[in-house]
Fold this sequence. Notes:
Blueprint: E1 9-14, H1 18-29, E2 34-40, H2 43-53, E3 57-60, H3 69-79, E4 84-89, H4 94-103, E5 107-110, H5 114-126, E6 131-133
Parallel strand pairs: 1-2, 1-3, 3-4, 4-5, 5-6
Amino acid sequence: xxxxxxxxxxxxxADDHPLVRKIxxxxxxxxxxxxxxxxxxDGAEAIKEAQRLRPDVVVLDLAxxxxxxxxxxxxxxxxxxxxxxxxxxxxxxxxxxxxxxxxGISAYVAKxxxxxxxxxxxxxxxxxxxxxxxx
Length: 135
């Protein structure tokens, strides 16, 4: 997906921890090119909200109740195929990064790198680029 120069990237945040969602929202809102359009607290809600809101990008945690991040990503890709996905996870295991790629997710950011890399990952993903920040 390519967004024009005047378009803002609409982002859905999905994480089971309210404090993490608040911090992610605050981090993303510092970038004038990004607009947080919604939040979800579990994988099933992430799919529903992605289908309802049609965000450009979904920032998705892996460890969530109801449906984990990988299952939620599959559902989002099915129900909202125009939404790109950024995995934001505390795990930096290469197997998880490889699994994300198999599903068709092109961005993976470690929570320890979120402050410096998350907005860049969202923007890159919205432009169809790959992005990994784990070290």
